[in-house]
């Protein structure tokens, strides 16, 4: 604990410490995957370490030592290896990350029921109901940081602010292993020096647009008449960016936000133009997505595929089913049709993805039987039963134990 | 080109020919209606390479000729004109339409670029228009609307001598209708898969004709033609193998229920008011009554019973209410016979004129149930 406190003080900045009304916390694990790997390989501490797929994968996470050399997550591994040739590369162990994440989320839920996870390693917490029990927001943030380190041996950074997006910016500023409180009356002085790209919803395009108007900082944006912004960016985003620039963000922390879609994608080790191999990958992804959909006890109505070509142009195609499904074979058949309908002639594909959208609870499952059930192939019910049985086998004996025959011999 | 025609005659024939105009034409000229005048009268036609329509109209001809004008516009104008004789004349590159005190001038498309309409296929026969229309309507309800399964968006037409069998299925239900016609050659044996929407519209529009001439090529010219009352339509056939539907008919029946068709229709409509999208209506058959129920425990629920005659074993079964209503409506009979084997196998609906009569065997509607929860 003493070590963690030391670092925290080092990471703190001076905006004042009045945390009244700053009931939103954004907690973000530092270099999550890399930190989890270092728990079991302490000899690598203090060295540049990157987690990511071999060959053509991307950097999923990197220690701060690697980041200092210019590596960042989502960077292609080949490039990362060039700029950091001495860095140690570790294959990701996703099961381990999920375990640690579950522990951290359980801790959050013991602080407040209002926890909105954003991914495995970050979440918003609304602590307004925990103040009487646990103390001021800053005290709660310290408690969380201490307990995360104590229980999981990894560090995290916390932003404390009156609104979600300011809290998120604050945790980014506090990194690594830090805590930053943005008092209510310091929100604008905190925001205004930041570049416009820091704002939620400002991507490359919008940033270009704003910079072309001479708006480089959040402060420039705040002092631009809202009508001008609406003319430049459209009604919705113009108004929203103006609000955000003044720290106005009325989004609540929504606990357990129902997932809107469930999907997986895969970057190939090298670009592929063989439709057979792409079909096989679509099958693997469809099975994976369907298993996740079943685990969430939902059904998906719309199948979406995503295809990224060698030149990074990316397209997606979707089809809505007459009945929502959680059956991998059905997802695959639609995904394959969508892919075949692109009519690609030896186009080189870098990545494919499969996603189910329009999720509904599986209580709405209505199984309209078909006349050709069992005549032209197994019925939906039979296919589903086989996949559910496979789910149970995998839970018990591991992921390698059962899979469609076409996928035998592949690594998960 | 110059002629004079009664307003109603013009409006009706133009509207009929315009109904097959493509809504998004692949070539601009395909949005046109072709007007052709010679000493025998006027011919109005449209063609989009899939479907062609051609109507012959009696007119007072002053001058022969042809012109191609916007079909949508001419149909709208025809509908809106006052009830007076209409004078139509081609003047250079424009067509003038004069009726009473209103007058319109329309631009023309280059008539020489317009494709020739396909000729009617060779083999044929005849059937009364109303028989044809009702048979097609009974089957078209079961055709698929999902363009990803194009074969199922068609109606299968099987000609075997004096008998024509129509069948359509969307995998959830199958409708089958037999009727007799008069083939030109008694030994005619030929099959076709016709787009269901086109066939349904065509049959409906020819319902008033005393006889409809059906032309279907034996050799497979990929075309089917219909002609009646001076109107003619051709449609391109669909490719693909229609399912072997005859084997789907259950060979045995374990129980048969007989109910009043109108009473069951009304009851299904009421009960399904509480059924969410895709949710089934559950029917529990027993001798004396069938109990209908829909809805779920935590949402709205409804139940109702209808008198029912059931000599055999009782049964609980669930259906998509719309599919059930489609079938009951298509029977066109005072009583409905529902034949079952089990709650996961298709039910067969057929019509009876008397509750204790024999069911009509010229129309059958097979309906797959929804699996009962639990």
Would you write up a description of this structure?
- The complex is a heterodimer of chains A (412) and B (374).
- Chain A is α+β, with helices and mostly antiparallel strands and 412 residues long.
- Chain A is built from 16 helices and 13 strands.
- In chain A, strand 2 and strand 3 form a beta hairpin.
- In chain A, helix 5 packs antiparallel against helix 7, helix 12 (226-233) crosses helix 13 and helix 14 (275-295) runs antiparallel to helix 15.
- Chain A starts with a helix and ends in a 15-residue tail after the last helix.
- Mean pLDDT of chain A is 85; it is low at 1-12.
- In chain B, helix 5 (261-271) packs antiparallel against helix 6 (321-331).
- In chain B, strand 8 and strand 9 form a beta hairpin.
- Chain B is elongated.
- Chain B contains 6 helices and 26 strands.
- Chain B is of the alpha+beta class and 374 residues long.
- The A-B interface holds A 319, 322-323, 337, 364, 366-373, 381 and B 146, 148, 169, 171-174, 243, 248, 276, 278-280, 320, 344, 346, 366, 368-371.
């Amino acid at each position: 604990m003493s070590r963690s406190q030391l670092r925290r003080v080092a990471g703190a900045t001076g905006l004042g410490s009045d945390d009244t009304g700053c009931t939103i916390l954004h907690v973000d694990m530092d270099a999550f995957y890399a930190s989890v790997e270092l728990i079991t390989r302490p000899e690598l501490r203090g060295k540049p370490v990157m987690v990511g797929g071999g060959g053509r994968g991307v950097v999923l996470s990197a220690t701060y030592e690697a980041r200092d050399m210019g590596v960042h997550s989502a960077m292609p591994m080949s490039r990362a290896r060039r700029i950091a040739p001495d860095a140690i590369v570790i294959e990701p162990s996703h099961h381990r990350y999920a375990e640690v994440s579950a522990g951290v989320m359980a801790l959050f839920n013991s602080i407040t029921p209002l926890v909105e996870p954003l991914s495995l390693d970050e979440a918003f917490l609304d602590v307004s109901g925990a103040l009487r029990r646990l103390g001021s927001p800053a005290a709660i943030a310290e408690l969380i940081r201490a307990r995360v380190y104590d229980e999981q041996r990894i560090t995290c950074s916390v932003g404390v602010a009156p609104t979600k997006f300011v809290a998120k910016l604050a945790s980014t500023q506090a990194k690594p292993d830090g805590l930053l409180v943005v008092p209510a009356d310091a929100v604008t002085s905190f925001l205004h020096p930041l570049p416009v790209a820091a704002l939620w919803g400002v991507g490359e395009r919008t940033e270009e647009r704003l910079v072309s108007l001479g708006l480089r900082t959040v402060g420039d944006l705040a002092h631009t008449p809202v009508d001008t912004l609406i003319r430049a960016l459209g009604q919705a985003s113009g108004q929203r960016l103006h609000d955000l620039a003044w720290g106005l963000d009325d989004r609540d922390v929504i606990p357990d936000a129902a997932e809107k879609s469930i999907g997986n994608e895969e970057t190939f080790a090298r670009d592929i133009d063989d439709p057979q191999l792409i079909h096989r990958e679509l099958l693997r992804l469809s099975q994976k997505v369907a298993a996740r959909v079943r685990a969430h006890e939902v059904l998906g109505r719309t199948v979406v595929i995503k295809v990224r070509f060698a030149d990074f142009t990316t397209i997606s195609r979707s089809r809505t089913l007459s009945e929502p499904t959680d059956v991998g074979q059905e997802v695959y058949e639609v995904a394959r049709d969508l892919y075949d309908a692109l009519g690609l002639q030896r186009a080189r594909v870098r990545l494919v993805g499969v996603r189910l959208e329009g999720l509904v609870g599986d209580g709405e499952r209505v199984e309209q039987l078909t006349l050709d059930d069992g005549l032209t192939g197994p019925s939906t019910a039979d296919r589903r039963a086989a996949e559910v049985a496979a789910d149970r086998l995998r839970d018990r004996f591991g992921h390698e134990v059962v899979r469609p025959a076409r996928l035998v011999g592949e690594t998960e | 080109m110059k002629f004079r025609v009664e307003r109603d005659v013009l409006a009706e024939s133009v509207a009929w020919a315009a109904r097959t105009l493509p809504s998004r034409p692949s070539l601009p000229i395909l949005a046109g209606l072709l007007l052709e005048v010679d000493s025998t009268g006027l011919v109005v036609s449209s063609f989009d390479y899939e479907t062609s329509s051609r109507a012959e109209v009696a007119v007072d001809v002053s001058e022969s000729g042809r012109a191609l004008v916007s079909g949508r516009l001419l149909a709208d104008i025809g509908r809106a004109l006052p009830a007076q004789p209409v004078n139509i004349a081609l003047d250079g590159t424009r067509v003038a339409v004069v009726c009473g005190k209103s007058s319109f001038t329309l631009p023309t498309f280059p008539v020489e670029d317009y494709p020739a309409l396909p000729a009617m296929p060779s083999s044929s026969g005849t059937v009364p228009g109303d028989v044809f229309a009702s048979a097609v309507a009974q089957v078209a309800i079961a055709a698929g609307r999902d363009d990803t399964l194009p074969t199922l968006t068609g109606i299968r037409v099987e000609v075997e001598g004096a008998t024509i069998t129509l069948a359509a299925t969307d995998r959830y239900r199958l409708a089958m209708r037999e009727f007799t016609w008069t083939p030109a050659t008694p030994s005619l044996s030929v099959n076709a898969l016709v787009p269901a929407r086109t066939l349904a519209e065509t049959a409906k529009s020819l319902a008033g004709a005393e006889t409809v001439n059906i032309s279907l090529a034996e050799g497979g010219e990929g075309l089917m033609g219909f002609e009646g009352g001076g109107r003619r339509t051709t449609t391109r056939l669909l490719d693909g193998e229609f399912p072997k539907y005859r084997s789907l008919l259950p060979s045995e029946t374990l129980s048969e229920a007989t109910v009043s068709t109108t009473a069951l229709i009304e009851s299904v409509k009421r009960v399904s008011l509480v059924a969410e999208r895709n949710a089934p209506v559950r029917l529990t058959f027993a001798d004396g009554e069938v109990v209908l129920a829909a809805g779920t425990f935590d949402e709205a629920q409804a139940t109702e019973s209808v008198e029912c005659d059931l000599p055999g074993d009782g049964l609980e079964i669930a259906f998509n209410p719309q599919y059930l209503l489609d079938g009951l409506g298509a029977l066109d009979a005072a009583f409905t016979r529902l034949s079952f084997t089990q709650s996961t196998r298709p039910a067969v609906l057929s019509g009876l004129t008397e509750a204790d009569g024999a069911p009509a065997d010229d129309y059958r509607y097979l309906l797959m149930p929804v699996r009962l929860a639990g």
